[in-house]
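Per-record layout

source: Pristionchus entomophagus
name: C2H2-type domain-containing protein
length: 123
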Amino acid sequence: GKTPNTRPESIPDDIWQRFYERGNALAKFVLNAFDAYATGDFAKWDKGDEDLVEKAIESAKEGGVWMSRVFQHILVEQMKEKEFFCCDLCQQVLFNYKQALVHFTSEEHGMQKTEATRKSGVQ
């Protein structure tokens, strides 16, 4: 489960370079998750380290609005599908990370309101 070295079209190049080159936990987590979400192939997703959650939460604030939006798109949708999780650890990791992002994005950027407005069709 290596981080893919070919940038998906949906990830801006500057974001890709910033996170891929750093190779931190957040980069590997989001890129693997994004790839798995896009292809539907969740079997290749790394199980992750025990300290993945702590590392990822620490680096989440460095990611800014765009990375938070990617995580919300992936996690909020996938949390609805129990089949998505390969094991209890993965489920707990994703749940903890989703909670952290919901707190971070709503407090720092008002992302929840933005998303709700977009989904309701209000311009």
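summary: Helices lie at 13-22, 25-39, 52-78, 88-108, 111-119. The two ends are 40 Å apart (CA to CA).
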